[in-house]
Amino acid sequence: MSTEIKNFRLNFGPQHPAAHGVLRLIVELDGERIERSEPHIGLLHRGSEKLMEDKAYNQNVPFFERMDYVSAINQPYAYVLAVEKLAGIQVPKRGQYLRMLVSELSRIGSHSLSMGALANDVGAITPLILGLEIRERISEFCERASGARMHGNYIRPGGVSFDMKQELLDDILTYMDDLTNDIQACDDLLSENRIFKQRTVDIGVISAKQALSYGFTGPNLRACGVEWDIRKSQPYDAYEEIDFNIAVSSDGDTYARYAVRLFEIRETIKIVRQLIKNMPAGRHKTDDEKFTNPKRKKMQSSMESLIHHFKLFSEGYHVPAGEVYESVEAPKGEFGVYVIADGTNKPYRVKVKTTSVPHLSALNELTKGHMLSDIPAILGSIDIVFGESDR
Predict the structure, then answer these.
(1) What are phi and psi of 68, to 5 degrees?
(2) Structural domain count of the chain
(3) Tens digits of per-residue pLDDT, 280-326?
(4) For strand 33-40 and strand 8-12, is the pairing parallel, antiparallel, or unpaired?
(5) Within a domain: residue 307?
């Protein structure tokens, strides 16, 4: 009597703690070796893009902060740049520097949590505690700048919502020294750790050609040897004035993706120091009151300012008809927004190019032939967030 041997199908997630959110991964196993893995997404879909068509331009900014909630400040950046390009809004230099500053701080918080979560997924607890401590400090700075730790609605068309006091800038600059020590501690714990390297080296390997065909961007693409960073290739705001290096590795495995993020944090510290030391004086947002709210003191004496304030928060502003695509180098890769304007106060269409979906689409390629226990390490290394992939 012959026995037919069949592969075993397993649901990994969406409740599994290593699924990094609401990912349902259907895994086909030969013993414990992965033959095929199929990601199922959409469990966090809220219809954000459709909802934006019914909101005024200035009301849509908070939608983006709820997409990649790990780096919430970075997400509205592309949308704001698109609206500014369509409406012809000129942003003062100080406003540009402040936007770059908070987005780079958010990059540090995102990468720190990502590396800590990856380490935790393969059994190391201390780096996660370190990452959470770093993120806590970044959240405190965001709260002091915007009033909220996570969703501050800070980057807006025309600049930023609030200026930063010199005391806050000095505190951020001082913290960069402590952060350098914390990142070195994480480096010492993981980079040459025998167990960590056994769990990550040659695991989830993808070539540069394959990564490009899937549409990889950000650290996951640079870990394959492709030197591509939008801040360098297509600089926005004042990034062309900042000196920093692009983090690149040629191995394309889980360890390389970790190493690129570690290097990027060190480069981001350099960027933050340059931004604070060279911070321009002047206004933090445009003085065109049709796009930004006037000061309350001015509204007490100027009828025009009062009218602008009422119109801005009741109706918003009208944007000339046109279409534009703008993208930024978010912590997880290229985050792009395509906006079609029809001349009204609401966008006709908003289409978001997220960072996570291309990386999720390559999961079968990344996991095939590996063991079931390698899935958490691979998922942790590509750094996905389902608020933006599902939207």
Answers:
(1) -90, 90
(2) 1
(3) 988 888 888 788 888 878 787 888 888 888 878 888 888 899 999 99
(4) unpaired
(5) yes
- DSSP tag of 88: T
Could you tell me which residues come within 8 angstroms of residue 3 by beta carbon, excluding any fewer than 6 positions away?
none
Give the global pTM. Answer: 0.90
Looking at the domain assignment, is residue 107 inside a domain? Answer: yes
Helices (H), the chain: 48-52, 61-65, 75-87, 93-121, 126-146, 166-190, 194-200, 208-214, 218-222, 230-233, 254-277, 296-299, 303-314, 356-361, 363-367, 375-382, 386-390
Per-residue tokens: 99: 């936007």
Question: At CB < 8 A and 24+ separation, what contacts does 228-234 make?
Answer: 229/329, 230/327, 230/328, 230/329, 230/334, 231/329, 234/327
**Any domain includes 198:** yes
Instruction: Give, as one character, the DSSP assignment of residue 234.
Output: S
Element (H, E) at 35: strand 33-40
* 3-state SS, residue 270: helix
Task: Give the closest residue to 185 by CA, choosing from 258, 131, 249.
Answer: 131
2 domain residue, yes or no: no
d(CA 279, CA 97) in angstroms, rounded, equals: 7
Considering only CA atoms, which of 19, 133, 156, 158 is closest in space to residue 75? 156
CA-to-CA separations, 29 to 11, 119, 174, 239, 306, in angstroms, rounded: 11, 25, 51, 47, 66
Say how far apart CA 273 and CA 291 lie, in whole Å: 30
Strands 24-30 and 33-40: antiparallel
> 366, exposed or middle or buried, with CB in 10 Å at 0-12, 13-18, 19+?
buried
- Tell me: the pLDDT tens digits for 330-364? 999 899 999 999 989 899 999 998 888 889 888 88
CATH number at residue 164: 1.10.645.10
For every residue of 53-80, DSSP letters joined together read TTS-GGGSHHHHHTTSGGGTTTHHHHHH
Q: How far is CA 189 from the centre of its chain?
A: 25
Q: What range defines the domain where residue 379 resides?
A: 8-390
Q: Exposed/middle/buried for 253, CB within 10 Å: 0-12, 13-18, 19+? A: buried
Rg (C-alpha) for the chain, rounded Å, is: 22
CB atoms within 10 A of CB 346: 19
